[in-house]
Amino acid sequence: MLTSDQALALLSAAREECARVGVPMSFAVVDAAGHLVALLRTDGAPWISTDVAQGKAWTAAAYGMPSAGQKTKMDSLPNFSTALSAMTGGRFTPQPGAVPVYADGQLVGALGASGGTGQQDEDVCSTAVTACGYATTAD
C-alpha cells in the first residue's frame, strides 16, 4: 500500500525531473487497485493532462507493467481497446507514460504522467520511482 506521504514523495521527485527536462507535466499516483492517491499539475501543463496521467497510471497498476506495454498489445486490437476503455469507464489508457511501483517485489501502485511525449512521460516516471527507492518491475 502507498501512503499519502509516499505518494507525495513520488510527486515531488517527478516534479523535479520534469523541471530538469523542461516539460510541464501532470502526475497521478494510484494504489495497486487503481484508486487515486495523489495528483499534481505543474505550472503550464495542459488542463487535460491530469485526466490522461490518471488513466495511464490506472492502466499501469491494472496490468503491473508500463502503460506502453498495453499500447503495444492494443495497436492491432483497436476494437478490443475501445471496448476495454468503455468497460472501465474510460480509465483504460493504453499509451506510454506510466510505470508500476513495486516495493519488495509487490505491486503497491503506479505513477502516470502526461504533458510531454509518451516517452518523456514514462522516463520521468521511471526516474521518480527509482529515486524514491522503488522498482518498476517485480524482480
For this entry, give a set of tags.
139 residues; alpha+beta; 4-stranded antiparallel β-sheet
Any low-confidence stretches, pLDDT <50, length ≥5? none
Name the overall outline: globular
Order of helices and strands: HEEHHHEEH
Q: DSSP strand (E) fraction?
A: 15-25%
CATH class assignment: Alpha Beta
Average pLDDT rating = 96
CATH architecture: 2-Layer Sandwich
What is the quaternary state of this protein? single chain
CATH topology, which one?
Beta-Lactamase
Give the N-to-C terminal Cα separation.
Answer: 18 Å
Helix content: 40-55%
Strand numbers in spatial order across the main sheet: 2-1-4-3
Write down the domain tally. 1
Tell me the CATH superfamily. Haem-degrading domain
Radius of gyration: 13 Å
The overall strand count is: 4
Describe what you observe in this structure:
The protein is an alpha+beta fold and 139 residues long. It has a single domain, classed as 2-Layer Sandwich (Beta-Lactamase), CATH 3.30.450. The chain has five helices and four strands, in the order αββαααββα. A four-stranded antiparallel sheet has the order 2-1-4-3. β3 and β4 form a beta hairpin. It is globular, with a radius of gyration of 13 Å. The model has no long low-confidence stretch (mean pLDDT 96).
Short description:
The protein is α+β, with helices and mostly antiparallel strands and 139 residues long. Helix content is 47%, strand content 19%.
Strand and helix layout:
Elements: H1 4-21, E1 26-31, E2 36-41, H2 49-63, H3 67-74, H4 78-87, E3 98-103, E4 106-114, H5 118-131
Helix pairs in contact: 1-5
Protein name: Heme-binding protein
InterPro entries: GlcG_carb_metab_protein (IPR052517), PduO/GlcC-like (IPR005624), PduO/GlcC-like_sf (IPR038084)
Pfam family, one: HbpS-like
